[in-house]
């Protein structure tokens, strides 16, 4: 209201001054006030009608300005989201490039040595390169909400068995005992992404276990796949953060190859596939990751 009155103040003052001037003329020349009253009230009514009309226009203008500000704010929010997504993508690939340099360098060093005992170690490094490459190739697929997921029914054993074959040299080198019985259970999922999810958890268990055990089991009543190890475990304060991008925690400080990429991808895939993941861990006792599949897989 104050802004409206300020906008039309000059007009109101002008009309009132003009009416006062006419009143003064009538008073000085002793003219009949009957003649003055009619145009006086007519001028006030016309002024009031004009102000009412301008008031409605003013309200529309204010409404348009508010809508414009809202659209401007929403546009800025979307722009910020886009910039944040671009930055996240850039950060991810910078981490990935840094991470993949380690196995490449190690492979080159091992290739310079022609002793056969190094073949197993070289294979492990090449497996890491393949795993990091798969992460990079699937990152855009996971983060793009417009990209369709190809869901199908698949036996869990068909997802797990190739991973066990791929990491067999690492199991042998680290003298880790695998406890696994083929799981014939069918689940509805996106096979490629689900396999990456399982692979990252398995790789994480291998990374932090030596001379230990890894169990892979299916819990029928909870519709969950459990991957458990008896490795060094995770500090309680680290558990809520292990799926954050770039977070490696205390265990990461002990392992220079840890960058926090793998479990971050696990979280993204879990959200995209609607397959919740839960982690339980006790320091120096072990860690259990559980992937829950949709009940419609029954």
UniProtKB/TrEMBL annotation:
Please indicate which superkingdom the organism of origin belongs to. Bacteria
What is catalysed by this protein?
Answer: ATP + protein L-histidine = ADP + protein N-phospho-L-histidine
InterPro entries annotated for this entry? Answer: BphY/WalK/GraS-like, HATPase_C_sf, HATPase_dom, His_kinase_dom, Sig_transdc_His_kin-like_C
- How does the entry describe its membrane topology? Multi-pass membrane protein
Instruction: Give start and end of each Histidine kinase domain.
Output: 95-297
List the GO molecular function terms. phosphoprotein phosphatase activity; phosphorelay sensor kinase activity
Task: Determine if Iron is one of this entry's keywords.
Answer: no
What SMART domains does this protein map onto? HATPase_c
Alphabetical keyword list: Cell membrane, Kinase, Membrane, Transferase, Transmembrane, Transmembrane helix, Two-component regulatory system
Q: Which PROSITE patterns match?
A: HIS_KIN
Originating organism? Facklamia miroungae
Where is the chain membrane-spanning?
9-29, 35-58
A Pfam entry, by short name:
HATPase_c
What name appears for this protein in its UniProt entry? Answer: histidine kinase
One GO CC term on file: plasma membrane
Q: What are the coiled-coil residue ranges?
A: none
Concerning PANTHER family, the annotation shows: HISTIDINE KINASE, PHOSPHATE REGULON SENSOR PROTEIN PHOR
Q: What is its EC number?
A: 2.7.13.3
Look up the record and give one Gene Ontology term from the biological process aspect.
cellular response to phosphate starvation
Please tell me whether the keyword Membrane is annotated for this protein.
yes
Q: Where in the cell is it found?
A: Cell membrane
